[in-house]
Structures are given as structure tokens and as C-alpha cells.
Amino acid sequence: MRSLGTQFTIATTLAWRNLWRNHRRTLVMLAAIVVGVWAMILFGALMRGMLDEMVRGGLNSLPGEVQIHNPQYRDDPSIENSMAPPAGELLASLDRAPITAWTARIKVPGMLASERDNRGLMLLGVDPAGEVALGFDPKDIVEGRFLESASDRGIVIGRRMAERLETELGKRVVVMSQDLNNEVADRGVRVVGIFRARLQADEESRAWLGRDAMQELLGAGDAVSEIAVTGNDYKAVDDWWQGLAESAGPELETLPWQQLQPFLDSMFRAQGSVNAVLTVIIFLALSFGLVNTLVMAVFERVREIGLMMALGMKPASVMYQVLLESLYLLALGLIIGNVLAVATLWPMRNGIDISVVGEGLEMAGMGSTLYPVLAWQDMLGSTLIVLILGLLASLLPAWRASRLDPVQALTRN
Amino acid sequence: MKRLLLLLLAFPLMAVAQADETDPRAIIRQAMDHWRGTTSYSDMTMLIHRPDWERSMSMRAWTQGDKHSLVRVTAPSRDAGNGTLMIDNKLWTYTPKINRVIKVPSSMMGQSWMGSDLSNDDISKSTDIIDQYEHSLVETRVDNGHTVHVIQSIPHEEAAVVWGREVLSIRDDGVLLEHQFWDQDGVLVKRMHATQVTEMGGRTVARVLRMENLEEPGRWTEMRLESAEFDLALPDNIFTLSNLRNPRQ
Fold first, then answer.
1. Domain that holds residue B137
2. pLDDT in tens, A6-20
3. Does residue B132 fall inside a structural domain?
């Protein structure tokens, strides 16, 4: 027992001291590991921030983390495929935690016409209070006002749409859609507000009208096309959406955002793997340097290792000692790298203004501010990958050191 | 074709049953009423003019009252056989090349009809829309021995009309001389006006009707009436989808 403990102490001391015998080489290697780890974590945090932004942006334009529809609605979003407003059990579960907000809306394709142009878009008949609770930001109204109530008879259109139609606040436009009998339903409405969106495409892909006014136009009674629900945490949706689906019953289709926006979901899932692959690639390059350092360290110490073995050190202990040396180097690099990464990200926690390149990024569904997200999974993941790959790479020089023949090693110059 | 044909063939019998001349709405309404139950058959040419090219199409049109009409292209051979059927506010087109009847969806009603300056809405919108305006008589003038009423029509707040106001000049014998479309800033955007008012098929009609967009000079479409017959017996099946696809006349 005692000898084992002593052996351990000797091995750790030797490994630590050996590490600093050629401190310049060690420092260079350490710097390489630090930069690698730092870059991996920083990159991971930026990517995660971008992704988070995309998912949230996507959900805002959905919006709602879970939506309930008539089962035919998603194939044919016409007013025919509408449903009765929530009542009974469904209403009760909508008002229960963890659901923080929900709203029922009419959402049908339609047309908007002005004197000079006409364009197709999604007409949203909404209850403005519900939309604001769900995530619509009234600050996005750049001119005029948002709808005042569900019975508001005005329309709020996007800034880009106003440009396309050559119309402006206070003017009349004509909305057109199909009513329950597949007949043209049209009406003049006054533009009461103009909104901006993070994505220009959103500014011309939808317009907001009062829900009552839309129901009246389409002859839809009190039917709605969509119930949008949020719990204010898109990652936690899996905990509650099935329960809601049960209360909605089999006649209605209840889906979480992962299924409504499979694109966002697959990006979200892919992100973890992308990070891991990048970490592995960066570290594979690093590990060549690491192997080289250790091979040199062993090569320089052939006689010394021979002496230790001649004095009775077991080959396993020699291997153990070299591995320990590598472990020290890796651990130091990881600690410094992680600390440095956190220190770099800290000043960026309130977002990085990327509006300089924002126009291009907008196409990818991003806004002009990037909020890095530091996830402990990323830090832990890269730390583990570096440790495991590093030790694997060190196995070869360590094994070669342990295979040395003491007599030959001692006589080598 | 309702509105367009109505305008093209004018408001017949107007002079016979004179409305109260001070009520602009009655002037229009009565003209419409007289149109009801009338049938017509006409040959016409549509001339589409652009700054660098021009093309014409010959067509035949049948109408019955203001709810039914059918238009068929006869020349050039490239377009021959294309048909448009209108019943109420609904519009169907038939193209022999693809052998399909297509109902024009509401989303396409604002688009151009056969490449002309007329939109699908222009040719199909029902005359019922007259109720969605506030009409006022702004001027009465004498022109070539006829009294011309200039009526300004301002759409109601929720009327499905994009214009700020429309101005119609109607002659006392019912011929619509001019129809102006003004935007909400008071800019004249589109203008349709009639020339060569003559007798045809026993009625007073305007032979040429030109629609032009004033914001795009050099672009206009003219409908020229070559011949017209009125109050003829039309077979019952003429305004049907099957007749649109398989012409029987």
C-alpha cells in the first residue's frame, strides 16, 4: 500500500518537474492547447447564439411554441378548415400553467390591393392583446398604432408591403380572400399602422386585422383557424404539449414547434454534432503537436528512463508517468482556455452588433444583434474531447518509453 | 365582361326613360336597370399598345343581362379559341392548348386580362358595386347637342374599391364617355374613354373604348366594336362551362 502511494507521489512529482524542464517547449504547446480550447468554446457560444436567435425568430413569426389547428388546415389553410374557439376542457388546460399565454386567430391567405399594385399575403385576424402576450412587440409598430381590439376595423401592414403597394398610413386598401362558400370576400380597410419585422420578407408576407372584422368578412361566425400557445421557454415544450394535445382531443391537431418548423428543429439538433465535429477537427490538428512534444520529451530522456528502470521502476509506471505529464499539460491548457473563453464572452453578454453584415445574415433568418450563448454542455463537451483525444495521442510515446530496454537505454548517447 | 361591355355598349334606352337629372345615382341606376334582360352579340378587336410594340386580337362576345357573358378569341390563330366566361363575379378561362378550364382565383382578379391594360376585375366586377359609392353630380355640360352629366363617385369607407374617387361622364343618351380613376392623393391614375359614338344594331354605342394608365405613357388598350346585335335569342346553354370548353356556336 505504502509503496503504491509513494510510487504515485514520485510519479506525479516527476511528471510535473519533467513538464517544466524544457519550459519553452511546454509553454508553446500549452499556448496551442489554450488557443484551441478558447476558439472551440467561443465558436460554440457564437453558433449557439445564432441558432437561438434563429429559433426564437422563427417562433416569433410562427408564433407560438405549440399550435392547434383543424387537421386539414396545414394542407389547405382556408377558412373552411377552421375550428370552433376553445371551450371546456381545452380552455381549462390553456389557462393552466406552464402555459403563459395563448391566443386564437384567423389565418388565411389573401390579397391586398392598392391603386397601383396588389400582392398576396397571409391575413391574420387577431385579438391584439393576445398577440402582444404571445410575443408581438408593439415597439415594432413604426407608424400609426397596433390594432386596439379584436373588433378593430383597420389593418396593420408591413413597411415593405406599404412600399410595394405605394400606399401609406391612413390610406385605404382592399383586402380579398375566400369566404366559407369559396366566394370572393373583399372589403376596403384603412391602414392604421405599419410594422417592421426583423426579416424584410415578414414585412410583406402578412398583415394584421381585427379578428371580429375578419370573421365577419369571411362569414366564419366565431370560428378560428389557429390557437397559438406559449410557455415562454421553447426548450421546455416537450414537457407539456402532449397534455394539451389530449385536452384538445383527436379532432384537432396539436403540434409543437419542432414539428411545425422541422427545419428549425433539425438545425437545433445538428448544432450539438457540428460543435463536436469542429472540436474533434481542431484537436486532431493539435494532437500532432502534442505527440511531437511528448516524443521529444521521451527521446531526450532515454538514458534517464533506462536508469529508472534499471533501479526497478516497472514499465507500467514509466508509461503512467508520461501519460501524467501529458495530462498535466492538457489540464493546464483546458483550465486557462476555458477561463479565457468565459472572460472573452463576458463583455459580449449584451449582444454583439453585427448590423454591418446584417443584411446578408438576414437571409439566414437572423437579426442584427448576436447574443452569444455559453452552454455548460459545450464547455464540458470540448473539455472531455480534448482530454480523451489528448491521452489517446499520448499513448504511443508513453508506450514506447515503457518498452525501452534498460541496458540499451543506459548505454545510448 | 359585364362592366366593360356595359360601358362599351353604353347605357341604352337611357334617353327614353329619363331619370331625375339631379340625382346622379338614379342616372346610373336606371341605366343599369335597362340593361337587365338585354342580350347582345358583338364582334370586336382588342388592340394592346406598348411603346415598342402593338398587337391586336379579334374576339366575339355574348352577353345576357349584366350577370352573364362569354368572350372568345378568334384571331390571331395563336390565341384563337381562348375563352373567358363570366357569371356573377366569377371568372373562368379556357385555353385550348392545355385543354383546361380554370376558375380564376380571387388572388388573380387584380391581374391583367389577356395581357391587356384591363384587369380581370375590370372585366368581371359586377355592376352591383354601384351601391358602394357616394355619387354626386359635379357638372352638367352640353357637348355636340347632348347633355353630359359628370358624376363623381366616392367609394364608401369599407367598399372593396382601391380608388380615392371615380369620375364618370355620361351622355344623356346613356353613352359613357369617360371613366376616370383617381388615387387617394388626388392623382389621376387610369382613364377609360369612349370615342366614335355611332348607331349599331339599333342602339347608340361607342365604337372605340380606350383604357390607359396615365403613369405609364404609351401603354393603352383599345376595344373596338366591329359589329353588334341586340335582343337576339341566345341558346340556354351558352353561358356554361361545357360550352366554354366545347364551343357550339
1. 2-230
2. 777 877 888 888 888
3. yes
